[in-house]
Amino acid sequence: QKEVEQDPGPLSVPEGAIVSLNCTYSNSAFQYFMWYRQYSRKGPELLMYTYSSGNKEDGRFTAQVDKSSKYISLFIRDSQPSDSATYLCAMSNSGGSNYKLTFGKGTLLTVNP
Amino acid sequence: SAVISQKPSRDICQRGTSLTIQCQVDSQVTMMFWYRQQPGQSLTLIATANQGSEATYESGFVIDKFPISRPNLTFSTLTVSNMSPEDSSIYLCSVDTGAGGHGYTFGSGTRLTVV
Q1: pLDDT-above-70 percentage for chain A
Q2: Are A48 and A58 in contact (CB under 8 A)?
C-alpha cells in the first residue's frame, strides 16, 4: 500500500462548480498536510497547509483533515477556469526545518467556461 | 517567499551523456532539495543538499548517477549522468519556504527527454 493515495482524475467540471479533491494515507505519524497547485510546465506552488485535524479556509479554498480516517480534502468553491491545474497533496511527520514531504500523484482538474 | 531560477527549462539529450541542471535562489537557504516528477508518478525526493557537506540521497538514488554540488547558500546543481530513456522526467529543485510552515517553494523544473 502506498503511503499516500490520490485519484489522478482527470476531473472536469463547469465553471462555478464546487470541486472536491481527496487523498488518503496510511502513515499515522503524518501531522502536517499540504495542498499544492501545479500549472502546466510550472513547478508546484503551495496552496494551503494544515497541522493535525480540522479545517482551514482561505478565500474559495477549504482544506480539511480527518486524522481518524486518514483522509484529507481540498474544496474549491465557485471554481474558475484559472483553477485548471494539477493539485498535489503532500504530508510530513515532523516539524522544524528538516522534514521530508510525501506527495500524492496529483489530480488533474479542468474547469470549463 | 524565495524565488528560484532553474536552468535549463528543457533539454533533449542523447543516451549515455550527462546533463547538469542549475538552481539559483534569490536568498540564502540552508537546505535545497532535488525532486523528480515522472509521468503519472508522485514527486519523488532524490536528495537533500546542504552547503558545505555531501548531499543526502534517498533510497534508490545514488551519488554516481545523480551527483550534486552545493558551493554556497544560494546555488546548487544536479547532474544526471550516463542517461538512459528511463531518466526522461521533470527535475525540480526546491527550498523550504522559511515561513515556519511546512511547504516548499519549487523552481519551474527541467523537462528532460533522453533519446
Answers
A1: 95
A2: yes
Beta bridge partners of A13: A111
d(CA B34, CA A99): 14
- A26-30 CB contacts, 8 Å cutoff, 24+ apart: A26/A1, A26/A2, A26/A70, A27/A3, A27/A91, A27/A93, A27/A102, A28/A67, A28/A70, A29/A93, A30/A91, A30/A92, A30/A93, A30/A102
Residues of B in contact with A49 (CB under 8 A): 101-103
Pairing of strands B10-13, A107-112: unpaired
The amino acid sitting at A34 is M
| CA of A80 vs chain B CAs: smallest distance (Å) | 23
Q: What is the DSSP string of A15-41?
A: TT--EEEEEEE--TT--EEEEEEE-TT
Residues A94-104 pLDDT 10s: 755 556 789 99
The Cα of A105 is separated from the nearest Cα of chain B by a number of Å equal to 4
What residue type is assigned to position A68 of the chain? Answer: S
Q: How many CB pairs under 8 A join A and B?
A: 60
Q: What would the pLDDT profile of A47-59 be if each residue is shown by its tens digit?
A: 998 888 889 999 9
**Which cell numbers hold the place of A70?**
486518514
